Amino acid sequence: MKKIGIFGGSFNPVHNEHVKIALGAIEELKLDKLLVIPTYVSPHKQNATVESGEDRLNMLKLAFKGVEKVEVSDYEVNSKGVSYTYLTILHFKSIYPNATFYFIMGSDMLENFPTWKNPEIIAQNAELVLLNRKGDSHLNAPSIKKIKELFNKEVIFLNTEGENVSSTEVRLRIKLKLNLDGIIDSNVKDYITLNNLYGLDKYYNYVCKVLPEKRRIHVLGVILTAKKFAKLLGENEKKAELASLLHDIAKYEDPSKYASVLPSGCTSEVAHQFIGEYIAKSTLKIEDEDILNAIKYHTTGRKNMSTLEKIVYIADLIEPSRKYEMVTYLREVIGNDFESGFKICVKEVLDFLKLGGGEIYYLTEECYNYYK
Fold first, then answer.
1. What DSSP character marks residue 13?
2. Same structural domain, 72 and 139
């Protein structure tokens, strides 16, 4: 009996971790064939900006060229409309009626699986296979238990463990003009460049003009962290992305040129947050007050912060490129409970500044006194 894997997603764009996952699944599950199937429109990303099905298919064919037992399928792209996995499973079941199917999912897919359209049909017609990303294994137990209870279905684990690389990060790296070596196939990279995919918008263009590569790497981490918390807390991810993108645009501006913008008593360490808000409003024509305030108070914090302000403050503090001694602890407390963790972060920032012996801007202490 043939063993056929199904590996679906938007692949927007495909990256090297996708290929690694495919190879691991083929080897561990002893598959005769792995169908890699890009969605036309994902049910869970209907409002997302996605490159055309043709472009995503072409990139997949480049990435998987020469990989044995992999077939890149255009079934969902050619079907148009919303891509429902249960229909895809039934389609290939009709072509290979005697095969055993293995449907490969990541942690997010596993968690949301019971909410999908006709998940019971998927569970009846395919084995469910889980790929863990690094650090995610402890998060999956509740989802696995729920699938067992609802569908009487065991979940198969892949030993292959995915790195924390996403298509979202790849797109952001392209927009921020950051290195993609080792992250996507060189032929895929050339295809993206030739076809001007994931092009810059005016905000990313401005950031690339005023910030050096090292600072743009920091901005990338802040965006990814902020988007994660925005999704978790039900906040607008696009607003979190824009505020994070622009939070440091004044990092290398000369404060003396903006004397009329800076509040009385402003220290050099925090001047960039006020100048950044001014540039975002006057030059980039940002009108959303929540975004402007998230930029304006991302270093000091303030009393009575909005959720978006807190998200950008936290993301700036704990994004992945940060290496200071307390950062692992702060990531843990924020991960366990955002509001409680936020208060701990405010306290730790103030304690650190006091140990340094420098001048502390009043908003930082005001923020601590309000949330302690």
1. T
2. yes
Q: How far is residue 285's CA from residue 111's CA, in Å, rounded to a whole number? A: 39
Cα distance between residue 155 and residue 149, in whole Å: 12
pLDDT in tens, 264-282: 889 999 999 999 999 999 9
Distance of CA 228 to the CA centre of its chain: 6
- 104-113 confidence digits (pLDDT tens): 998 888 888 9
Task: Indicate if 56 and 162 belong to the same structural domain.
Answer: yes
Same domain, 245 and 142: no
Judge contact between 245 and 286, C-beta under 8 A: no
pLDDT tens per residue across span 215-240? 999 999 999 999 999 999 999 999 99
Q: State the Cα angle at 145 between 139 and 148, rounded to 5°.
A: 140
Tell me how many degrees the CA angle 11-14-17 measures, rounded to the nearest 5.
115
Domain boundary among 146, 167, 188: 167
**Which stretch of 159-163, 256-260, 297-301 has the lowest confidence by average pLDDT?**
159-163
Query: In this structure, what CATH number is given to the domain that contains residue 115?
Result: 3.40.50.620
Give yes or no for residue 140 having a pLDDT over 80. no
Cβ neighbors of 137 (< 8 A, separation 6 or more) are none
Q: How far apart are CA 263 and CA 163, in angstroms?
A: 44
Tell me the residue type at 231: K
Domain end among 167, 191, 220: 167
The strand pair at 155-157 and 127-130 is best described as parallel
Whether 215 and 163 share a structural domain: no
**34 inside domain:** yes
Does 335 map to a domain?
A: yes
In sign, the C-alpha dihedral spanning 326, 330, 331, 333 is: positive
Average pLDDT, the chain: 93
Region for 81 from its dihedrals, namely left if φ exceeds 0, alpha if ψ lies in -120 to 50, beta otherwise:
left
Task: Report the distance separating Cα 22 and Cα 312, nearest Å.
Answer: 35
- Please give the residue range of the domain that contains residue 130: 3-167
One domain for residues 15 and 160:
yes
Q: Please give the tally of structural domains in the chain.
A: 2
Residues in the chain: 372
Q: Is residue 189 part of a domain?
A: no
For 74, residues 6+ apart whose C-beta sits below 8 A from its C-beta are 53, 57
